[in-house]
């Protein structure tokens, strides 16, 4: 079963909006750092899924899914980094309060695949909540559309992880 071959996941099905007409916004940019590289950020998620891929002993399929989702999260990190630049910031690996990213943000040990998948689902839900909060904090239509598009990916990750729970 390949979770990435269906058209609903394909980037061609719905492209990411172009970053056009973005105005500098100090307050919003500071808050965006949390999603970029805060404690529960795209950066943390990438490293979480890469670590899970390396540590996974259940199946090659699980390893492949984790790697593919990590790559998708890398795309989100790139988008948010580009957005930070357009908002007038340097994309440092830190949260909104200048707290530097730390490897302690990654959970390294799970007692079961089910525990890992539940943890990942909750992380995706947290990301969605934060993106929805960010949408409320900006009046810039382009940013809202970009974050809504990222949310669709995160929702799809939840579906994939849920499918793996019943599959495993």
Main sheet properties: none
Structural class: mainly alpha
- CATH class designation: Mainly Alpha
Helix content: 55-70%
Give, in order, the helices and strands: HHHHH
- The count of strands amounts to 0
When the domains are counted, the total is 1
What does this structure look like?
The chain is mainly alpha-helical and about 170 residues long. The protein has one domain: Ferritin, core subunit, four-helix bundle (Ferritin). Helix content is about 60%, strand content about 0%. It has helices at about 25-35, 40-55, 60-85, 115-135, 140-165. Helix 2 runs antiparallel to helix 4 and helix 4 runs antiparallel to helix 5. The radius of gyration is 16 Å and the shape is globular. The protein starts with about 25 loop residues before the first helix and ends with a helix. Mean pLDDT is about 90; it is low at about 5-10.
